[in-house]
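A reminder from the course coordinator: this example appears on the midterm review sheet, so study it carefully.

Given structure:
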């Protein structure tokens, strides 16, 4: 009987008759997964079409995103006197338009030809620099010429000294020869005197030998004087050489000093030129500051100073401009 029960098919009546059977086996149960998937897809599509920007209410100040788009105050860089207005409040201006012309109030800048006179001073200083440089070049050439002249003079003196040294040597040789001759005559006169006293020679022979002795003595004195004179001339030439060196050295040092003085004056004048050029640039920049111009396109909304001949100080506000293009932000 058991085997017959096992092989008997289960029909729908049996499925509906036993609730436990349906709970356990779930033969007729359907899955809900696909319904969840379709629901999620639909929800995502709906979310994609929802607006992302959310509006809220709050309190704040309206301003611009960039600083240069905010109202601009134009201030004076230099002190001055208002001479002319080129705009009025509410006028539209473009970048570079002249708004106000200022006049000078400082005594140092009253001269209308201040730039021209300063330029003349610069030109004169530059000419002075050329003159000093030319003087330095001339002094340098003079130094070269003096050195060459000194060398030639020293060469000439060296030749003279050499010649005089040879003359001194020659005179000294003559003195030695004359001394030898004098010694011979000295012996001869001594011998003649003995022989004359002995009566071996006559008076005439004795006198002749005496004359020869005196001539030899005079010749020795003359040779010694000539030798001493040659030595003195040699010393004089050496002194002259030293004097020549000293003289040309003084001239070279003087010319060198003049060259350095000229170069120093040129350098000092170049410094003066640089200062004058700086002053000229400051004057030129100050002249450009007399005209106050619009920094960008916009509209004049406020003029702090009014009228003509009104004195303004450095940093005073003249006008206020609202830029033409701007991006608002809260």
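Designed residues:
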């Amino acid at each position: 009987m058991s085997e017959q029960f096992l092989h008997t098919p289960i029909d729908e009546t049996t499925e509906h008759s036993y609730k436990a059977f349906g709970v356990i086996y779930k033969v007729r149960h359907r899955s809900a997964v696909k319904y969840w998937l379709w629901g999620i897809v639909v929800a995502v599509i709906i979310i994609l079409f929802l607006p992302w920007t959310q509006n809220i209410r709050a309190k704040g100040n309206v301003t611009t995103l960039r600083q240069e788009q905010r109202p601009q105050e134009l201030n004076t860089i230099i002190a001055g006197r208002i001479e002319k207005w080129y705009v009025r409040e509410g006028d539209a201006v473009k970048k570079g338009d002249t708004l106000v012309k200022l006049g000078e109030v400082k005594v140092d800048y009253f001269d209308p030809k201040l730039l021209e006179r300063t330029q003349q001073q610069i030109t004169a200083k530059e000419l002075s620099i050329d003159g000093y440089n030319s003087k330095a070049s001339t002094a340098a050439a003079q130094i070269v010429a003096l050195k060459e002249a000194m060398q030639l003079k020293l060469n000439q003196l060296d030749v003279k000294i050499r010649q005089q040294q040879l003359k001194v040597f020659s005179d000294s040789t003559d003195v030695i020869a004359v001394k030898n001759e004098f010694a011979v005559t000295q012996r001869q006169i001594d011998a003649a005197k003995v022989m004359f006293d002995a009566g071996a020679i006559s008076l005439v022979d004795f006198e002749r030998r005496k004359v020869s002795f005196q001539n030899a003595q005079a010749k020795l004195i003359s040779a010694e004087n000539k030798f001493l004179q040659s030595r003195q001339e040699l010393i004089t030439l050496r002194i002259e050489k030293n004097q020549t060196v000293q003289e040309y050295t003084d001239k070279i040092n003087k010319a060198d000093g003049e060259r350095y003085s000229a170069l120093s004056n040129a350098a000092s004048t170049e410094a003066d030129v640089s200062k004058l050029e700086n002053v000229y640039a400051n004057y030129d920049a100050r002249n450009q500051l007399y005209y106050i111009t619009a920094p960008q396109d916009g509209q004049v909304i406020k003029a702090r100073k009014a009228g003509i001949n009104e004195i303004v100080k450095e940093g005073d506000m003249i006008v206020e401009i609202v830029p033409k293009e701007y991006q608002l932000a809260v």
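The helical segments are 2-6, 12-17, 19-25, 33-48, 114-198, 203-288. The chain has two domains: 1-104+290-330, 114-288.
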